[in-house]
Design goal:
0% helix, mainly beta, seven-stranded mixed β-sheet, four-stranded antiparallel β-sheet, 49% strand
């Protein structure tokens, strides 16, 4: 079991930036890690994955605005968000799984953080 702790959520104006962090209790070297976000009444949306080798994959809605990275020395997974829009408002969760594949499907992940709230006002 991997313990994940997110931080960095805040309230910002549209156009602003935030960096979310997700600290893992184990080495991230061999993990697939993902960021999801959720708003009430909607399905949990996967927005980015980062493979064990650092390769990332983004959904179209965040491409060019969000950047994900990981620090395998500190076991932290980052999500740098810029040009934030009101529609980015959500609870953001990091998730992790073992293996070489990183699907953007919530049910494929068995390790989740508690979430961190991002609110973007217009």
């Amino acid at each position: 079991q991997v313990q994940l702790v997110e931080s960095g959520g805040d309230s910002v104006q549209a156009g602003g930036s935030l960096r979310l962090s997700c600290r893992a209790s184990v080495s991230t070297t061999e993990l697939c890690m993902a960021w999801f976000r959720h708003t009430p009444g909607n399905e949990r949306e996967g927005i980015v994955t980062i493979r064990y080798d650092g390769r990332t994959s983004y959904v179209d809605s965040v491409k060019g605005r969000f950047t994900s990275s990981k620090d395998n020395h500190e076991n932290i997974f980052y999500l740098q968000m810029s040009s934030l829009k009101p529609e980015d408002t959500a609870m953001y969760y990091c998730a992790a799984r073992g293996g070489r594949t990183c699907p953007l499907v919530p049910d494929e992940y068995d390790n989740w953080g508690q979430g961190t709230q991002v609110t973007v006002s217009s």
